[in-house]
Amino acid sequence: MTWTAPEVTRTRAPRVADERTALEGWLGFHRQTLLHKCTGLTSDQLKTASVEPSNLTLLGLVRHMAEVERWWFRTCFAGETLPDLYNTDEYQDGDFDLVADADAESDLATFVVECDLADRTAAGRSLDDTFPSPRSPELRMDLRWIYVHMIEEYARHNGHADLIRQRIDGATGE
């Protein structure tokens, strides 16, 4: 039996909420939307590039966002020393470039785990908690910035995912 990406139930972000609930709600919705774009596709379909010469794939987007979740919440905010999941010195964009031999089922599971670990890292922390900017350590950033950045990053990549999914099987939607 051929593996296909599982169905995902998306939870809408609240329409009226305090700041933290709204940020967590929108981030969760966008995470679920990326997985929703993968629902029902085989490993080979998830590795299908959008259009030449681009190497952008749904699996590459999932792998990239796992890296981004890990980087911002755990490495930058929590200060954990963690290796990249897919990127190497030789392949700086391994999340996108090295999908041909990737295990899609494992990579989707890794994404879910990284999202959960990111949530655990932020749990109980104030949106005002700060950390040094990775590019300019003398500057401080706050947890709120990470939430806003992650939402915009997912929104951009979910637009890419829409186009890739439509190219694969014609499915459209948010």
Radius of gyration: 16 Å
Strand content is under 5%
> How do the strands of the widest beta sheet line up side by side?
1-2
Mean pLDDT: 96
| Overall 3D shape | globular
Question: Helix and strand string, N-terminal first?
Answer: HHHHHEEH
Main beta sheet strand tally, sense and closure: 2 strands, antiparallel
- Runs with pLDDT <50, length 5+? none
Number of β-strand runs: 2
- State the share of residues found in helices, binned by percent: 40-55%
Number of helical elements = 6
Q: What would you call the structural class?
A: mainly alpha
Distance between the termini: 29 Å
Features:
two-stranded antiparallel sheet; 3% strand; mainly alpha; 54% helix
Structure write-up:
Helix content is 54%, strand content 3%. The chain contains 6 helices and 2 strands. It has a two-stranded antiparallel ribbon. Helix 1 runs antiparallel to helix 3. The model has no long low-confidence stretch (mean pLDDT 96).
Fold topology:
Layout: H1 19-38, H2 43-46, H3 58-77, H4 94-97, H5 104-122, E1 130-132, E2 140-142, H6 143-169
Antiparallel strand pairs: 1-2
